[in-house]
Amino acid sequence: MTRSPAKLRFYPVIFAGLLALLFSGAARSFSPIALCYDKERDIVQSVLNGTCEGDVVTAEEAQIIRDRIKRERLSRILPAMPHSGNDDNSAAEKAPSRARIVAFGTAFSIDERGYFLTARHVVDHCDTPNLNLADGTGFEATILMRSPDQDIALLFAPALQLPPLLARPDHPARGDSVTAIGYPEQGLPRIRPGSIDGVLQDISFDDGTARFLAFKAPVRGGNSGGPLFDDQGALVGMVIAKANSVAIFQASGSRVRNMAFAIANESLDRFLKESGLHLATYPRAERDTAPDDTAVEMSGHAKSPLDNESIVRVVCRR
């Protein structure tokens, strides 16, 4: 669907302000907020008063519902033990893990030797990150490096060697179609990845380097650390957050819905170079000359990014 020029011009104006609110956690208290329980999705959210599409609940009722959801999440997570690469693990299989699950997210392969990227906040409080395939098989990972100033972390799972995602060699443009792939939570964590389509709204540059992408799409918790693809299946960034619509409205009076953010390829690549790694990219000639319906296939990717085995779920335990 074509976006009007007026609407596209609006988002660059507020882009810097959205980033500031996103990372500062700014909030004010002049607008009443309601706790809304969505029975269909089995989730409690903070919304603007009068906009709840489910049942308005008290703080105590919300806590009871959230505690029940947490218990159900833990009972629904597949109990597969992580693979460490050692076949003689019968003792480990008999000993149940006492580690508590504290976060879920998404990661993707950037090197077939077992290197993965994810969002730093997914693993910040994690002692033992596991990378799970869509069939539930888990692989133990090590946190090799965290960016001190960006939401990026590098994981290493030597027993999980998957082909790397291929990155777009140039910048996407405003108005381009994008797709986020990940394991978003909808009351309970997903077992298989899901896709969310959106439209790129703006790009933030720092000294000529693309840093952030703002795109219009309804991402959710669990999408963090997942890849953002262009319409040919090439990686253009890593999803890190969605805009806090309530905080933005409280601070500015502007209603912004379904705005999300990703870290651009150039910033990801700069981070990886510190450890001697880099993003694999599509050959330019291939992208420029291949028909739209074969460009992805020629690069070794499935036609649908959802079919890509190199995107895994992160289960963070502590």
Automatic annotation (TrEMBL):
<dbReference type="InterPro" id="IPR001940">
    <property type="entry name" value="Peptidase_S1C"/>
</dbReference>
<dbReference type="Pfam" id="PF13365">
    <property type="entry name" value="Trypsin_2"/>
</dbReference>
<protein>
    <recommendedName>
        <fullName>Serine protease</fullName>
    </recommendedName>
</protein>
<dbReference type="InterPro" id="IPR009003">
    <property type="entry name" value="Peptidase_S1_PA"/>
</dbReference>
